[in-house]
Design a protein that fits this description.
The chain is an alpha/beta fold. Helices cover 33% and strands 19% of the residues. The longest helix has 12 residues.
């Protein structure tokens, strides 16, 4: 499901510690600036991270990338694995500071 960063922030706050912000860009993109509290799981190694148990089905997973394409792929994969609380926040290009200033 595609949501805005504002909607993602509301879900993050409502989940009270049971939500994770997942950045699926590459490490160099992440270093240029990422959302506060974001965890990096590049799409290029996303399935391997999944196989290693990186994601829990009971958590709200808020996923983003640069433009929304890679985050869409990650969300589609997780949904195909039975995950229900997976949200595509789209691309950081559309970010308006909802979670606070980007971190480097």
């Amino acid at each position: 499901m595609r949501i805005t960063f504002s909607q993602g922030l509301k879900k993050f706050q409502k989940a009270k510690g049971q939500a994770r912000i997942i950045d699926v860009r590459e490490e160099d993109e992440f270093r240029e600036g990422h959302l506060p509290q974001a965890q990096l799981y590049p799409l290029t190694s996303f399935i391997q991270s999944f196989k290693e148990g990186a994601f829990k089905k009971d958590q709200v997973l808020l996923i983003y990338c640069r433009s929304g394409a890679r985050s869409g792929q990650a969300c589609k994969f997780l949904r195909s694995q039975g995950y229900k609380k997976v949200y595509n926040m789209g691309g950081i290009l559309d970010y308006q500071g909802e979670f606070g200033p980007l971190e480097k």
